[in-house]
Amino acid sequence: MDDSHPRSVPPGLEPLPGLLHPPDGVLDDRGTAAEADLPALQEIAGRAGVAYRPGPGALIARTVRGAPAGWLAGVYDSAYTGPGAPCAPPHAYIRAVVVDPGARRLGFGTRLLSTFVARAHRLGVRWAFAAVDEGPGVQGRAAWFAERGWAPVADPGEGWPVMGRWTTPRP
């Protein structure tokens, strides 16, 4: 999942320009998934070996040809109840970040993550968190978040690694 050393880009999988700090709607014309998008996003989840399935409202990253390359499911009105939350709710919560295996290492996941954090900030949410799915590859998933500015949350009672970050520079 490391985007720092991009591989050669197959035709049609180039990320859309300007996605690092995109305005609403750049990832997708609607910005989020509609019911009609769900079969394609579920296929991506299947190819990626992810059990979680997206619902309407997931952020979508598309290729220059318009095909879905990945998605992020999350909410902006959650509350992390563990002892490591650095501020009062609301907190933004990432449920899943999934990129099609054929489109990995091209920046789609990073762009989805930065878009989610930027939207949380615009909504007045100060802190975001994600519970990194345990199982094979958990260290790699936690490292991927850490490389993008997320830090482990101190919560000895949590079974899954929790990563968090401020949506703005730390107060």
UniProtKB/TrEMBL annotation:
Biased composition (Low complexity): 15-25
Entries under PROSITE patterns matching the protein: GNAT
Annotated spans, Disordered: 1-30
Transcription is among the record's keywords: no
Top-rank taxon: Bacteria
Residues in N-acetyltransferase domain copies: 28-171
Molecular function GO terms recorded: acyltransferase activity, transferring groups other than amino-acyl groups
Keywords: Transferase
Alphabetical list of InterPro entries matching this protein: Acyl_CoA_acyltransferase, GNAT_dom
Residue ranges that the Swiss-Prot or TrEMBL entry lists as coiled coil: none
Stated name of the protein: Acetyltransferase (GNAT) family protein
Lineage: Bacteria, Bacillati, Actinomycetota, Actinomycetes, Streptosporangiales
